[in-house]
Prior knowledge:
The chain has helices at about 20-30, 45-55, 70-80, 105-130, 155-175, 190-195, 200-210, 215-230; strands at about 10-15, 35-40, 60-65, 85-90, 135-140, 180-185, 240. The chain is α/β, with parallel strands linked by helices. The protein has a single domain, classed as NAD(P)-binding Rossmann-like Domain (Rossmann fold, 3-Layer(aba) Sandwich), CATH 3.40.50.
Amino acid sequence: MNARYDYVGNRVLVTGAAGGIGQAIVEGFARGGARVLAVDLDEQALQKLAQRHSALGHEVQAHALDLADPGAIADLLASLDCLDVLVHNAAYFPLTPFAELAPAQLRRTLAVNLEALFWLTQGALPLFARQGGGCVLVTSSVTGPRVAYPGLCHYAASKAGVNGFIRNAALELAPLKVRVNGVEPGMIRTPAMDNLGDATLNARIGAGVPLGRLGEPADIAAAMLFLASDAAAYVTGQTLVVDGGATLPETLASQAL
């Protein structure tokens, strides 16, 4: 992550912060001088993350929270005295064939991936008003808005909804000087991806990406840092695809040409 942005004095909240992409996003903002509130369901992993950053002189606080609970989200936002950047990165995506999908799985997928975005943003509005504006960022996905993946129909639907939220919220919140943008990752090398396939399969997937590799969490964090920065001050209602060119070919067959 070579690009450096100055976030000294900024308060940043990151969900899904305990590992993978979320951990990289926390690191990027913390290295830029931000005060980061790291939110995740995994309290033990959060504490280790906060301790590691404390040893580096960074200000990272841990807050364990189930993002499927709107009341807990409201309480968290109400407890803050300021907020500059909200990053909703948390996601739930159990790999499940459509015919076997259970109501509880669908409800939790939508609650964490999509509904939490509404309540986080809504709760952040009074804080943004005090600051004279703010920035909402979302980890979306190419799965749903652009491509499909077997066993992820519920996840794809939630991420298509996320992209709809980004566009409409950006329009509605623009008069409040609140920008809303997202990043659509492709195949990123994270523990979660390991759950979708073995190392051999993931290596084949990486080799099939036009840039010749899987993405890294830092690739997504770099896009988030740009979108939160003054360099993107005139950007809102957009999603940035970070997939190494994987969605460029019209069909898989064209990759063999």
